[in-house]
Amino acid sequence: MSQKIFNTRTRTKETFTPIKEGAVGIYVCGITAYDVCHIGHARAAVVFDVVVRYLRSRGYEVTYVKNFTDIDDKIIDRANREGVDFREISERYIQAHDDDMAALGVQTPTVVPKATEHMVEMITLIKNLEEKGYAYSVAGDVYFSIRDFKPYGGLSGRNLEEMMAGARVDVNDKKKNPLDFALWKNSKEGEPFWESPWGKGRPGWHIECSAMSGRYLGETFDIHGGGEDLIFPHHENEIAQSMASTGKPPANYWMHNGFVKINSEKMSKSLGNIFPVQEILKNYHPEILRLFMLQSHYRSPVDYSEESLTEARTALIRGYRTLQLLKEARMQFPAEARQESSGLSEKAESYISRFAKLAEKFDEAMDDDFNTAQALGYVFEMVRLTNNFIVEEKKMPAPEKAAILEEAQKVFDRFGEVLGVFHGDPDSFFMADQETELRKRGLKIDAIEDLVRQRQAARQNKDWSRADELRKELAAMNIVLKDSPAGTTWTVE
RNA sequence: GGCGGCAUAGCCAAGUGGCUAAGGCAGCGGUCUGCAAAACCGUUAUUCCCCGGUUCAAGUCCGGGUGCCGCCUCCA
After folding, report:
1. With a 7 Å cutoff on the CB, does A120 touch strand B?
2. CATH code at A272?
3. How many domains, chain A?
4. Prediction ipTM score
5. A27-61 tens-digit pLDDT
6. Domain residues for A52?
7. Which contiguous run of DSSP H or E holds residue A367?
8. Which residues pair with A304 in a beta bridge?
């Protein structure tokens, strides 16, 4: 099956055909660096991270460009409020963004260009638009004239008349048309500026993406992505600029991720329901957040709540328990001792072929417009099948077990590599998760282990009532015990 | 006002014309266990918001209705 992508421009799922066989150029609108990243930024980042990971895993050579808007009104506002240079603000929040992304396991894009480092490209592009008659300058500002660009509205499915009818009164009377947008803004006294043919000023918001995508990916590239709120006006304007300049559409496929809602409401500063990534990661292992988001299709809205993260954590633990069982079993039955595939019994072959079938289904789901929710369904079926194997096939000859365990691990490695979930060492995961949970609940590891030791002693004396009492005491702290012949282990629920 | 989306079990969530409607969480019964936990096995939607239509066949397509949401202004 071939890769399918839902293209916002046509509102249909289309077969993905890259411009250059075996290679993909993708541009995703990044953040404006004026504040820390919230869960909505995290979703966009994780969605496109998985898109890129999957395409790479299928053998495409992917050039992934994600920009930073490091000059903008909001950055200037913040710099003024804090009394610092705007660069200090943008650098601070770019660093914070990079830290958050690293924590979330989001791979660094191939190129991470900044607007301020591409002034030459932007000015050249604006000049070109002016020469071709698509732009006009007024008192140091330059505007794009949408009336002169006939296809305007093609991405968002609007036409000019509709928009004119619904347009609010624009206070900017320099514009010929209220829907015209700024390519270049004249700088006011004390604002940062760059020299240009129109005087001292700074670029408008949309132009940077046209300039940078063009520079790194060419006039037309494969995929352009971003949050669904960017469809209009940002991406519409990008298309207008690029097409007016080059005569070609900038991207063949437009992908937009859905929003993160909070209790079914839009996240917004006015509602005060912004959840910064840093805050969430204080209380939840990063993979919990990834799993939570990937359990829904990327175009659907997701509703964030503590409960849904807690559910995702339970599911994540389930998967990692299996990976832990698998790890232990593989130590017992190492790959070196495995049976050659030619000599496997029918039963062993049946396990391996079922693994392969799930891996195939996983790819089919991902091929179908990156359906991570469905793909995760197969991941969990793999979890069940692996558990089932480990529990049921105790008596299978060691070389066969080793062969099957090896295959199972390979399948999980692939899933983990694509989703960025279930990819780490299970013991490290449990340690990190435990640390987070203990910190969140204000529990001390020493106090817990002391109680566990006391209970161990009681158990050795077969003082079951004392042991149960201690179990209850620990349960009150959300500590769940697991007794095994090797001793007692505990987890935070 | 214009444009667009969504409605599937107690909750979350895939599925967009045809095998038994994925998967996760929660619940229940069983195996295991000193008791538990985990894991495994079994079980939980005769039905996909409502009404009508197309079709041999619809959760899936069409028309109408109801409810919720997003964009049209900076926004992932």
Report:
1. no
2. 3.40.50.620
3. 3
4. 0.94
5. 999 999 999 999 999 999 999 999 999 999 999 99
6. 4-283
7. helix A346-367
8. A262
